[in-house]
Amino acid sequence: MELNDISYSWPKKPLALVCIDGGDPEYIEAGLRDGIIPNIARFMKEGFYKVAQGSMPSFTCPNNMSIVTGTEPKKHGISGNFFLDPESQEPVVMTGPELLRSRSILGEFSCEGAKVVSITAKDKLRKQLQKGMDLSRGSVSFSSQHADKCTMDENGIENVLEFVGQALPDMYSAELSLFVLDAGIKLLEEKKPDILYLSLTDFIQHAHAPGTAEANSFYIEMDQRFGRLQELGALVALTADHGMGDKSNECGEPNVIWLQDLLDQELGLGTCRVICPITDAFVGHHGALGGFVRIYLEQKQDRKKVSEIVQSIAGIEKVWSAENVAEELEQPLDREGDLAVVADKSTVIGGSEKDHDLSALKGKRLRTHGSLHEANVPFILSEPLNDIYLKRAGVRTIRSREIFEYALNGTEF
Questions:
Q1: pLDDT tens-digit profile of 382-396?
Q2: What is the pTM of this model?
Q3: Extended beta strands in 44-121, E state
Q4: pLDDT greater at residue 57 or residue 95
Q5: Which fold has domain 2-81+95-243+375-409?
Q6: Options 3.30.230.10, 3.30.1360.110, 3.40.1280.10, 3.30.930.10; which CATH number does 256-368 get?
Q7: CA angle 209, 222, 164 (to 5 degrees)
Q8: Do 338 and 354 contact (CB within 8 A), yes or no?
Q9: Torsion angle, CA of 82/316/341/72, rounded to 10 degrees?
């Protein structure tokens, strides 16, 4: 199967690729130290492991789309969870399938006759992941969020809760992710799909640091399911859409730059607009605060002046012009603001303080993502690489978007 200048081999046995939302490599390291993830440890020893680099910004939508298209945002077009539509000048959630500019590996394989399973935790991703999929020949696509609403026409499956034998999980729970894995296991047991793409949610990682009891419990549960996928004959591939970092100070308060407020004070109201592309329908655990924002200017000639002001703010790591960020971070230029900004490792950037509700943190430390520091993700295969891909992995940075290629072309299965 050919897509975006890459030729993918047909799977000789099932491939189960899991995107661990928020799965920072530090969680793997903590699990190995505590001896709680024996299946992942075995994959790393007998198969392949390396820390890979994800797409920027380090958010959910861009990286899931990079993984399933095998390319970067400049090609597939999804450059955030949220963006400012250049025609309407209105903020738009970036989950519509019409916004995805590339065909996907899932869609192409399903159209060529493979049985493809795509299951997501949050329904916000489902329609983009499902774009181009042929559900008429045994492929299915659904979310655990809406597992009680599946139909044959829309999802290729119905009565999912009865099929999996579980109740509908709560949106803010570990069970939302575990349901994805359990549903994938059930489908692998009974339907024998060729490819499974299982995309989880980062509720636990936003709330709990690596090595804590809650994080360890979640990784124990996931690890058991990864082992079961392998028992059922699948090659298991594990990566993440982004990492996760602590963004609070010594007192436990969030390290936030209220960039819209600062620029309004410096330049006056109406001169610029800060857009936080981490924003989605589920902001309770991060308050729409991340490490990457875009600035849209009323007067384009102000770009140099605004850039210098922003770069001088403590906690700001880098400011790019639209053209420079499009080139350096492989972004679609027509979906950029006038400036792009990333925070340092311990800081997040917001718009105006009044527009961000942090009450759901309930005194917990803010853990979130979006900057360059959360772009590192695990890249794990349960089987070893062949000589060609092992050599390739040794001489260049692996990108998370390459995991389908490495799994299908780079292993001996």
A1: 999 999 999 999 999
A2: 0.95
A3: 48-53, 82-84, 91-93, 116-120
A4: 57
A5: Alkaline Phosphatase, subunit A (3.40.720)
A6: 3.30.1360.110
A7: 135
A8: no
A9: -80
